[in-house]
TrEMBL record:
Residues 214-455 form the Glutamate/phenylalanine/leucine/valine/L-tryptophan dehydrogenase C-terminal domain. It holds the Pfam family ELFV_dehydrog. This is Glutamate dehydrogenase. The keyword Oxidoreductase applies. NAD(+) binds at T221, N252.
Amino acid sequence: MTTEVISTKSAAQNYIDSVFEQLKQKNAHQLEFLQAVEEIFLSLVPVFEKHPEYIKHNILSRIVEPDRIISFRITWQDDQNNVQVNRGYRVQFNNVVGPYKGGLRFHPTVNESIMKFLAFEQIFKNSLTGLPIGGGKGGSDFDPKGKSDSEIMRFCQAFMTELYRHIGPDVDVPAGDIGVGGREIGYLYGQYKRIRGAYEAGVLTGKQPRYGGSLARKEATGYGLIYFVEQMLQDAKLSFLNKTVVVSGSGNVAIYAIEKAQHFGAKVVACSDSNGYIYDPDGIDLKLVKEIKEVKGDRIKTYVDYRSNATYTEGCNNIWTIPCDIALPCATQNEIDGEAARTLLANGVKVVAEGANMPSNLEAINIFLDNGVLFGPAKAANAGGVAVSALEMAQNSGRNYWSFNEVDEKLHGIMKSIYLESKTAAENYGHPGNLVVGSNIAGFVKVANGMISEGVY
């Protein structure tokens, strides 16, 4: 005699589980992409219970498949006249809200899984900004470290020679990311103009100011992160004043998060690069960090040559053992795991907000949420960069050039709006205070409704 097991799962949960199982079978080797999808899917059960029409239109199965994945060979010559070959990608994931929008990453770890995870996250991050931009991402496994300016220029030109036919101001608008700053964007845009024979400033964002770029773009992700945390703290009747802060990374996001946190009265005591981290109990000397990273292009360990009380530790993982009130992971994906989260918790952390993309794994996120830590998820907290990229697009379209203060004021308003939308969605769907759920739902619903309105295609 057999006993029939009756499932207590709702139709919504069964649907979500079914779509995710199918996705795992198709993409079993793409761990980063599956992690990003799972994190969003976990938030969506109450949405599908409230909106069964999303199941009818099979929104999930449609939204997890990119519109297209473009992969191409990049052939270029180094300074010794040796021919080098790299692989390039552009994942155009979803353009329901607006043209595909997302950065280009030049880093040896780039692969299809990472590009898909970043592009998938970008859909909902861009939706949250309230601006008309869809989700995409691209890049190459090219490593700019140790390359001359001439080599980087030749690589960028070769990369754009393949990419140009797939992008445009109203089609797909790339920007910078890890390994791609103003210099690289300039080389890419120069090649695009040569090929197209036209001045289409809106095709790339992150350009140099006065050459089609926007003021405050370099600062935007870091400043936006702090503006988002400011809202979290205000709701908890707290502030940055006299709080101890640890920031991972020392690129644009980290540097300008440190700058704005210090402006609000925080004491930032640590930052890092891919080799290790510095700890300065007297507070990070940001002017020195900028000199090391932005002017000299040196490694962060040289900081201790100028600051006698500072220490340098090889390897990045233990940066989260430094006691702090506020932790801001601004380096790369999965830098905070369960062990790091438990250490932060034991040391009294009150706020964790993500400046990088997916820097906390699911175990870490659950530890923070289960223990009452204020947690700002990446797709909401680090949306400032893409928000100002969209403002750059608007300036390009209108042949305008806004002051730093104008852009910064708009950025501040956008980050406040993202926080309030995420908070409200969390409350409306039964998870008050959970900004992970709130930001996922707020970003998703707008895209899902747009997909329904367009019909099946």
